[in-house]
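Need Pilus assembly protein PilP's 3D structure for a figure. Predict it.
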Amino acid sequence: MKLKCIMVLSCCLFSCVDPQLQELRQYVSETKQKDYLFDEAVPSASKTQLVDFTENKIRDPFSQPSKAVITTVTNTNAPTIDSCISADFPEQNRALEKATIEAIEMRGTIMLDQELWALVKTIDSNIYRVKLGSYLGLNNAKVIKVNHDNIEVLEYISDLNGCSKERISQINLVAK
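Structure prediction for Pilus assembly protein PilP:
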C-alpha cells in the first residue's frame, strides 16, 4: 500500500515537470558547429646540457639542503656516567620546541626595550620572536647569542650512553 502511494505521488510530481530540452539541443548544436583551431605543429625540444656530478663541485641533488652551520664543542675527556651533562630543561611545550633546528629559518631582527630579538619562521609558516635564553628545537637548544645576521644556539645531543653532548649551531638569516 505504501509503495502504491509513493508511486502515485512520484508520477504526479514528474508529470508536472516540463523538460526544456530545446535549449539544451540548441546549445549542443551550436557547440558542435564551432571551429576550434589547433596548432598541428609540434614544438621542437631544446637540447639539455649534461652536467657531470662531482662531490667537490656541487651539492648532492638528492639530499636535503642544510640551513644550520654546525660546529661541535671539543671535549678532550671521554665522557663517563659521572661526567655527563645534566639535562634539566624547563618543560615547555611550545611550537618552536617541536621543530628541528634545520627546519627553523631566521627571517630578521627587531629591537624591543634595548634588547635584540630574532624573528624566526617555522615549517608551518608562523613567525616567532626569540631572544637570548629562549629555547627552541627538539634538542633543547638554548639561544646563546642573537646577531643581526644569525642566531647561535647551544644544543644538547644525547649519545648512545645516555649522556648529553653540547653542540653549537647557527641559524643564518634567510633573505627572500
